[in-house]
Amino acid sequence: MEYVTSNRIKIKDILLDNRNWWRFYLLYRPYLRIAIITNVLKMIICGTTFLGFKYYVCSICHLVKKVCFTCKCRFCTACGRVATENWIRKNNACIPDTTWQHVTFTMPMQFWKLFWLNRHLLNLIAPISAQIIKEYCGKEGCIPGIFIAIHTFGRDLKRNFHIHPSTTCGGISYDSLTWIEVYFHAETIMKKWRKLVVAQLKSEYLKGTLKLPANMAHIKTFRQFNAWINKFARKSWIVYFQKQTSNKKRNIDYLGKYLKRPPLSEARITKYDGEKVSFSYFDHKTETTKIKTMPVMIFIGSLVMHIPDKHFRSIRYYGFLSNRTRGELLPIVNNVLGNFTLPTPRSITWQELHKNEFNHDPLKCPECQTQLCLIGVTFPEKSLNINTKHQEIATKSTYELEAA
Question: Domain of 33?
Answer without folding.
Answer: 19-74+364-403
